[in-house]
Amino acid sequence: MPRHKKDGLNKLIEFKNVSKSYDNGTKALDDVNIKIEQGEFVFIVGDSGAGKSTLLKIMMREEVATTGTVVIKNRLLNTMKKRDIPYFRRHLGIVFQDFRLIPNMTVYDNVAFAMRVIGAKEKKISKRVPYVLGLVGLAEKSKALPNQLSGGEQQRVALARAIVNNADIIIADEPTGNVDAKRSYEIVEMLNKINATGTTVIMVTHSEELVRRFGRRVITIQDGRIKSDDVSREKIVAESALPPDLNLSSRRAIREADEFIRNYKPESERKKSGGESDE
Ligand code: ADP
């Protein structure tokens, strides 16, 4: 297993002068430098086409940087051998934009599958899967098939599958269209809880309000470059930050999501104040 020990051991993820050009000549990333420590929660935002997916794909070793170096868990991804990739990916739990659930498998088996492929024993699986389904609020749905679930529930199955093997890094790529307000918020709440256990979380999102609300580190990508890192304290105008190429219903959904999050109050706070007012 190639290891990269030069730059200290505590950095979980490091992109150094990373550029990525696709075969057709498109430069998707341009001199990107990012360091993420174990236990951080990082939002990645940027317009459509900015380079967010490319960044995630390089982290997952689906794509390789054209120049620069990428080190994750002390492994240099640039030169990683094909046979080492599946082992490396065990450190990652990925919630894909389109969830990628297996249609003819129950919720239970979709999550169990992630454990079976790494050779976990059925005894362990039968304990762990119900536990994780409980964490994401799907204990009652374990026998359902994906097409019997709402979009939000499907996303939670995808999340359960991402965390079931205790990955060090959870990568969540939020769907672009039809963003459901409550759903976005719930997913970040769950990711927050997972992060509180020491797991690193990286989430791509389109909701500026979500980002503002949670006050975590924010990396903004524009035209393949890091425009800003940690803009959570900056004032962002949500309206102008909407990706320009979204269709109307997606834009409306994002605005509704922002509205929901603006007015959202956790149960505990609501009881405390006893009122409806916010901020
Ligand atoms: P985002 O996730 O922020 O929408 P992407 O990383 O998908 O951005 O895309 C960045 C740029 O790279 C865009 O111009 C996109 O068209 C281009 N791109 C993405 N994937 C490929 C590919 N496989 N081949 C060629 N160009 C690509």
Please explain how this structure is put together:
The chain is of the alpha/beta class and 279 residues long. Helices cover 36% and strands 22% of the residues. The chain has 10 helices and 10 strands. The strands form 2 sheets. The protein has a 6-stranded mixed beta sheet, sandwiched between helices. A 4-stranded antiparallel beta sheet has the order 2-1-4-5, with helices on one face. Helix 3 packs across helix 4 and helix 4 (122-135) packs across helix 5 (151-163). It binds adenosine-5'-diphosphate. Adenosine-5'-diphosphate (ADP) binds at residues 22, 24, 26, 28, 46, 48-54.
Offer a few descriptive terms.
279 residues; 6-stranded mixed sheet; 4-stranded antiparallel sheet; 10 helices; 10 strands; disordered N terminus; disordered C terminus; binds adenosine-5'-diphosphate
General shape: globular
Structural class: alpha/beta
Q: Low-confidence spans: pLDDT under 50, at least 5 residues?
A: 1-8, 231-244, 274-279
- How is the largest sheet built, in terms of strand order? 6-7-8-3-9-10
Report the total helices.
10
**Helix and strand element order:** EEEHEEHEHHHEHEHEEHHH
Question: Into which percentage range does the β-strand content fall?
Answer: 15-25%
Report the helical percentage: 25-40%
Major sheet details: 6 strands, mixed
